[in-house]
Known about the structure:
Blueprint: E1 2-3, H1 4-11, H2 15-23, E2 31-32, E3 39-41, H3 43-57, H4 62-68, H5 75-119, E4 123-127, E5 130-139, H6 144-155, E6 164-167, E7 177-184, E8 195-199, E9 202-210, H7 216-229, E10 238-244, E11 258-264
Antiparallel strand pairs: 1-3, 2-3, 4-9, 5-7, 5-8, 6-7, 6-10, 9-11, 10-11
Amino acid sequence: MYKIGEFSKITFLTVKALRYYNDIGLLIPARIDEETNYRYYNEENFKKAMYIKLLRSYEFGIKELQEIIPSINDSEDITKYLLEKHQQIEKKIASFRKMQNNIQNEIKNLKEVNIMNKEQGVSVVEVEEVLIASIRYKGRYEDMGTYIEKLFKEVGGKGESAPFALYYDEDYTEENADIEVAIPVKKPINNGDVTSRILSKQKCVSLTHIGPYDKLSASYKVVTDYIKQNDLKSKTPTREIYIKGPGMLLAGNTKKYETKILVPIE
C-alpha cells in the first residue's frame, strides 16, 4: 500500500490531481483510514493511474475517462479506445482541412467583393411602373426558391424579364420575413396564390451586386452608406432583381451571379 505522497511520486500525478480524481470517482484509493483520513493506494490503483495518464496524454476528456476507466481490464481494452480516438481525430483532421479550404475561398471572395464594391458605382434611378405576377408569403428567406419555382410554373412563357423579390421588413428577420416574389408579365395572371398588380414608378438607389448571395450584405452596406451620406430617406420594400442566378436544377458559378439592389427613397 502507498500513502498519497508516495503514490504521487511513483505515478507522476500531483497530490491535487489525485484528490480531484478521488472526488469525481475516477481513481478511488484502495483504503481510507477512518481515524486519520489518510488515503492508501494499491497495485490496482497504480494500473488505473497509468491508464489515466496514457489516455489524458491523447486528450481524452474527464467525462470520457469516467466512462472508460471502470471498463478497462487490460491492454486490449485500452487499444480499442485508442483506435476509436484515432478515428475521431481523423474526422477532426478532415473537418479542419475542409475549414482551411473554406477560409481560403472566403478570403478570395472577400477580395473579389472589395474589388466589385470599388468598381461598381451607386446611382439614383427612376424605376418605371411594371405589371407583375407575384406570390407574397411570410417565412424564411431560404423558402424563396420554392415560391419562385411555383411562380414560374404559373407564369410559363409570359414573363417579361428577370424575377425579383420585394422585402417589406425594415430589418433582418429570421423566421417570419415578409417577402413577395415577382415576375414582370405582359398580361395579368391571377390563379391561386399568384396575383397580378402594377408596381408604381419609384425613385431608388441602385447597385448591381456581382457574386454569391451570401456576400450581398457588403453591397447593402455600400447602398446604405450612400443613402446616409446624401441625407436621403429609404423606404420599403427593398427590391432584389435576379439578373443572373442559379437555374432550377443547377447552381452554376456563384461568382458570376448578378443581383440588382433597388432601395426606394423619398
